[in-house]
Amino acid sequence: MAEPVSAATASDAGLHPLVGVVQRYADEVLRPSALRTDRHGIGPQRVAELAELGLLNHLAPEEFGGAAVDLASDRRIREILAGACLNTWLLWVQHAPLVELLAKKHADGTRLSDRARDVVHGRLLVGAGLSDVRRYPDHYVTAERRTDEWVFSGTISWVTGWGLNQALAVAAVEPLTENVVTALIPVSGDTVATALDLSAVGGSSTQRVTLNDVRVPDRDVISTESIAQWRRRDLGMSSDAQPHHFGLAYAVLDELDVEPDAQARAVSAGWRPRIDAIRRQSYALADEVLARDDGRHRVDERLAAKVAIGDALATLTRALLVARSGRGIRLDDTAQLHARSALFLLVQGQSAAVRTAQLEHLTPREHR
């Protein structure tokens, strides 16, 4: 039987050389250890490996020792990492976009703090505490302005990589002005973590972190913007089907392809072109959003694509579980790992608009 070729792998030849390096690392290290990582967690060695590969600053320009990876190659790297080990991907993806943001600020003439420069150089792993702004005013981290600094207080709902990251990127709201202040803060005695009992991505060291009046000097502030501006940007990011959705989908399709049951292979053959089509559409729409710099552009179509890939992941992971029967729900089988990962991706990065679209899709037509 011929090896199946997806839209993703077919185009790898024209991408940045780092894509091939990451693919080998995923095949030789991440995928074989994914079950163990999920159960026992990511250790410092994994972070050191990511740094050695250049993945802690792959989006940075060469002056910072980065690879200046282009958008298509970055998307493919995200797909590969998510498909091989979602726990590792989650740790990494909290960090990687911040490097790109800081590099752009440097290019625009912003003077970076020493901490920010360490991040762009790939010397410092950063966790993210940004999404609680979505819940304002019900729940958020508070930013209070002092004479020459900010004070951050409150609880961050999710921080991935706790114990591995040395700093956090935190988005806090100043209630008086309703401005969102995003800053780099060090992990210290004023940042206290509480364990989360997660059924998925349990190896990612994701915890709840409370900030006890953390002082933030102006030099470590990344941006200050109105909450309306923040929400427009967030709409642009959260409404799209993302590379990690497709990375997991292709990983499950590949496993279905080698199942002894011919019907399991038929499931893959039927679904692979559909996943390819959703991927092409999603990336094309995301490119339009970038070109227009408008997070509201064709948002209904983008949300529909995100709902479609979530639905596809639920179906494909069920198919893999069915194909493997009872052994599929053992903790030493990837079927249950992928099924739990698919559930996690339904709520990861979920805005109110995404949640509404998902629930409308799940509502019987006569009740919509």
Structure description:
This protein is of the alpha+beta class and 368 residues long. The protein has 3 domains: 105 residues, Butyryl-Coa Dehydrogenase, subunit A, domain 1 (Orthogonal Bundle); 101 residues, Butyryl-CoA Dehydrogenase, subunit A, domain 2, CATH 2.40.110.10; 123 residues, Butyryl-CoA Dehydrogenase, subunit A, domain 3 (Up-down Bundle). It contains 13 helices and 8 strands. The strands form 2 sheets. It has a 4-stranded mixed beta sheet. It has a 4-stranded antiparallel beta sheet with strand order 2-3-7-6, with no helix packed on it.
Write the SSE topology.
Blueprint (H helix, E strand, L loop, with lengths): L6 H4 L6 H14 L3 H7 L3 H10 L17 H14 L1 H22 L6 H7 L5 E4 L12 E4 L3 E11 L7 E8 L4 E8 L4 E5 L11 E11 L3 E6 H12 L4 H15 L4 H31 L6 H26 L9 H14 L4 H11 L6
Parallel strand pairs: 1-4
Antiparallel strand pairs: 2-3, 3-7, 4-5, 5-8, 6-7
Helix pairs in contact: 2-5, 5-6, 5-9, 6-7, 9-10, 9-11, 10-11, 11-12, 11-13
Q: What is the CATH first-level class name of the largest domain? A: Mainly Alpha
Helix and strand succession?
Answer: HHHHHHHEEEEEEEEHHHHHH
CATH architecture term of the largest domain: Up-down Bundle
Q: If strands are numbered along the chain, what order do they take across the biggest sheet?
A: 1-4-5-8
Strand content: 15-25%
Largest sheet: 4 strands, mixed
CATH homologous superfamily assignment of the largest domain:
Butyryl-CoA Dehydrogenase, subunit A, domain 3
- Name the average pLDDT: 95
Instruction: Write down the domain tally.
Output: 3
Number of helices: 13
Question: How many beta strands in the DSSP annotation?
Answer: 8
| Low-confidence region ranges | none
